[in-house]
Amino acid sequence: MLDGPMQSKNRTLVKRPWGGYQILEKTPEYWIKKLFIHKGEQSSLQSHENRDEVWVVLKGSIKAQKNDSSIILNAGEFLKIRKGEKHRIYALTNACVLETAFGQPRERDIIRYEDEYGRV
Q1: Would the pLDDT of 10 be above 70?
Q2: pTM for this entry
Q3: Are 83 and 49 within 8 A, CB to CB?
Q4: Which residues contact 101 (CB under 8 A, 6 or more apart)?
Q5: Whole-angstrom distance, CA of residue 80 vs CA of residue 94
Q6: Count of C-beta atoms within a 10 Å radius of residue 107
Q7: Are the C-beta atoms of 37 and 91 separated by less than 8 Å?
Q8: What is 80-115 written as a DSSP string?
Q9: Nearest to 11 by CA among 42, 37, 36, 44
């Protein structure tokens, strides 16, 4: 058997206060998630010690915060987040973002600094 990715056969929507996500593919070295962010909602301001991320906006518009700066991204545009950089997504419209994480992607690698949903 080839050493290939562990496909997520059950692409259940994991709900979050800002929307939710589906895991499309996951291996020990990377994962690919599809994030769904409701208009006017945002993720927590966070960083990661063990992974880099690349966000590709598939649908809608977001304001992406990276450290102390913000940028508007529309469908087809992308942003790279390096380990240790503070970041968050704010949805200007209902948005869909493809998140690819490289390194050691794990949910418990989240360091939260601010969160309007009380998760800090």
Answers
A1: no
A2: 0.87
A3: yes
A4: 30, 31, 33, 48, 51, 52, 53
A5: 21
A6: 7
A7: yes
A8: EE-TT--EEEEESSSEEEEEEEEES--GGGEEEEE-
A9: 36
Measured distance CA(44)–CA(60) in Å, rounded: 19
Name residue 117's beta-bridge partners.
none
Amino acid of residue 103: G
Q: What is the pLDDT of residues 55-109, one digit of tens each?
A: 999 999 999 999 999 999 999 999 999 999 999 999 999 999 999 999 988 888 8
Let me know if domain 33-114 sits in CATH 1.10.150.390. no
CB 102 within 8 A of CB 51: yes
The one-character DSSP state at 44 is P
| Residue ranges of domains in the chain | 33-114
